[in-house]
Structures are given as C-alpha cells and as structure tokens.
Design a protein that fits this description.
Structural class: alpha/beta
Number of strands: 12
Helix content: 25-40%
Strand order of the largest sheet: 7-6-5-10-11-12
Shape: elongated
CATH class of the largest domain: Alpha Beta
CATH architecture of the largest domain: 3-Layer(aba) Sandwich
Radius of gyration: 20 Å
Distance between the termini: 31 Å
CATH superfamily of the largest domain: HAD superfamily/HAD-like
Number of domains: 2
Order of helices and strands: EHEEHEEHHHHHEHEEEHEHEHEH
Amino acid sequence: MYIATLLCAPTAKNLAPEMVDSLRNAWGGGDIQWLAPDEAAEFSLATKPQNFWSVWADVQALGLDLILQPASGRKKQLLLADMDSTIIQQECIDELADEAGFGALVSAITARAMNGELDFEEALTERVLLLKGLKSSVIDTVLQDRITLMPGAGHLVSTMRANGAYTALVSGGFTAFTAHIAKKLGFDENRANTLNIADGVLDGTVSLPILGREAKVSALNEITVELGISPQQAIAVGDGANDLGMLSLAGAGVALHAKPVVAEECEIRVNFGDLTALLFLQGYSNDEFVG
C-alpha cells in the first residue's frame, strides 16, 4: 500500500477539495483524509501509478506538492536535519562574508557548492579563508540580526520530540550557529564544523576533519545504532548536494526547496510546503502539532 499526499504553502491554502477528489478518483484511491483544511490531504493507493511523475509535474504547475510513499512505517523515530537554507532561511557563511565585505563572492561559491558543482571541502576552505580577521563578535550580531527560522521548524522539532523521536541538527556549517539554533528549537544534538578563533578574531580556518557529505551519512549511521533503530526509521531533510548521502540512506529523504541536482535524485520533493510538510508526510494532522 502507498499513501499519496498533496500539500501547498501554508500561506497560500490553495489545495482545493475538487483537485484532491479528482486525483483520488483517477487513481482509484481510498478515502481522503484532510490533515489541514485547504493545505494538506492524503489518500491510500494499492499500487504506484505509472503516470506519477507526469501528474507530479502538472500538480507542481498549480503550486502544489505531491508525494507518494509506502504506507507502512511512515512515522519516524529520528529526524536528521541540515541547517542552512533548511532549518534556517539563510546560509550562515554568506551572512558572515557579507559582514566582511565579501558577500557576493562567497554567495556565488556557496550556490555552486550546494548544487554539486564544487568540492564541498575545498569550497568551504576557500570561503572561510576570506573571513580571516573578522571579529568573532560578529557571529552574535549575525545570529541576532540576520538569521531567521524556516517556517514550521518549531512545529517539526517539537512535534517529533513529543512523539518520542530523537532529533539531530547536522550541518556543514558552524557549531557557533548550530549550537544556538539547536538550543532554541530543542534539538537533542547538533554536529557541525568549528571556526577557529584566535585573540577574538577568525583565523580563516576550521578545525579538521571538515564535516561534509560523508559526515552526515556517518551521523545517520551512528545515531541509528545508538538508538537501536534502522535508517529506514529516520526522516532526513536538506537542500544541498552535501545532503544527498543522508537523504538517500534515510527511510524518508526530503529535498526541501532543494537545488536542482538534489531534487532530481530524491523521490520526496517539497517545493511549496514548509517544514510542517515533514509532519504531514508522516500522517500528523495540524491539530496534532506541538510548539
């Protein structure tokens, strides 16, 4: 059995009952369950429709997300989340670089790295070097003035934790940011790179080894072993090329507003919904949200 989920941006609320009913009838699905009025609905299917991806493209043109996944084991026991452009709306290194006067240059490198065009470790080393001499106090300034949570982040972490799941923030960014965001949202743990600081200024390097794609895979493997669960019982979310390893290994790998190269390799793509989409995908209704 499969579950088809339709959802939209919470601010749009443009998921029409007629649309859901039409698709359910075309595919011979089961009863429609509304998870949030005008925002998210699901129905069961006996088999995977052969025309799924063509219908997916049509639905995308209407500003809607369509996801198909196995019905069993949807509620996950582990959330593994990327931070930059996933749990928060910014790329922290770009914001730091903007303070240092290299914003446009670093943003361009970041975009290419996240789309898989550049080696992640080399690109990170190059960008961090441009931050050399920046006062470490700027980190607090960026956190306070520039960093905003992705809509739905609080509901996602709080709801999963309230239902017994373990939550981990795993970033190719920096611990100075992940520690703050993890504490704010209530993540159980966070992993990231450490910016090296000497005499109150950034020295242009990060501590080795650099945490990139393989570190995220290792985190998923290590945490699932510690919890005594399988990777199939995890849901992972990210947007960049360095997230692809954990997205492919997790039972549900969600490409959230992802770069094209990432979306192309993921079965679960959320382009319009926010982070609450990860709760809808697990079968939670909005009256079950916590936080």
